[in-house]
Amino acid sequence: MFAADFPTLVNGQRTDSVAVTDRAFSYGDGLFETIRVCQRSVPLLPYHIERLKRGFAVLGFSGVDLELVESEIMMAVAQMPADEGVVKLIVSRGSGGRGYRPPIQPEYQRVVQCSARPDYSQQLAGISVFLCSTRLPEAFGLAGLKHLNRLPQVMARREWHDASFGEGLMQDSHGCVVEGTQSNVFWLSSGRLYTDGLVLAGVAGVARELLIREVAPALGIEVCFSRISFKELLQAEGMFVCNSVMGIAPVTSIAQHGQDDIISFGAEEALDAIQQLQSSLEVYYRCE
């Protein structure tokens, strides 16, 4: 299927054009969601809408019609040439304002872009990850949000071109591993599941929220928030990365920037636990 077969809607109209004066283009003034479509349904949409609400509150996006946003997502899904796919939603503050100062009465712009879902079958079996040298900046008020400012992730992704690496790990300015370039990071230790609390940096992913609130508790696994250095992470029993489009990918080895050594990772018992989490997460997509 060609990319042109997948629809793009701008404010509910099928087009691929937006104003060059839009503040999303000038300043990254907006939020986005990357949403998995299964059998033409969007099972995790409530989680995405909840995260949008949090972001709107922080950015001062008042008056965005969320019912309209949801209806445009489903309108685009209905026009897709396949039952499976990915929806990227962007909500910007629109055009206007002087310099950084936002307009008093913004005209919010909504872009819904559909595409095919990549084949993640190899990643779901286990991936090698790359430790990036690019650090995440601290952004206290913005930590957790999926805003449009993604330059640190872009710079980190430039660091490797070897297709054998499925993801890159990113540290904050203190040397703690926070997330992947496009995923959240979890690790297992002493029967507990750990992840960064995302107080200083990072994106609170939808799959991460689902694991914390529903999947892990249903399996009797305690979830804890902790900050961890890369050296300490190597002592964990197992690790995985996840996002709402891919699901869970166990980490089997790690390579460091500028070093040739590849560190094998993950005890067999931990991998079994990760695969159980992986299977349980997929149930929520109703794709099994």
TrEMBL record:
One of its GO terms (biological process) is 4-aminobenzoate biosynthetic process. Keywords: Folate biosynthesis, Lyase, Pyridoxal phosphate. Pathway: Cofactor biosynthesis; tetrahydrofolate biosynthesis; 4-aminobenzoate from chorismate: step 2/2. Its EC number is 4.1.3.38. Its cofactor is pyridoxal 5'-phosphate. Homodimer. Involved in the biosynthesis of p-aminobenzoate (PABA), a precursor of tetrahydrofolate. Converts 4-amino-4-deoxychorismate into 4-aminobenzoate (PABA) and pyruvate. It catalyses: 4-amino-4-deoxychorismate = 4-aminobenzoate + pyruvate + H(+). PROSITE patterns: AA_TRANSFER_CLASS_4. This is Aminodeoxychorismate lyase. The keyword Lipid metabolism does not apply. Belongs to the class-IV pyridoxal-phosphate-dependent aminotransferase family. Signal peptide: none annotated. It is an enzyme of class 4 (lyase). One of its GO terms (molecular function) is 4-amino-4-deoxychorismate lyase activity. GO terms for cellular component: cytosol. It comes from the Bacteria. It holds the Pfam family Aminotran_4.
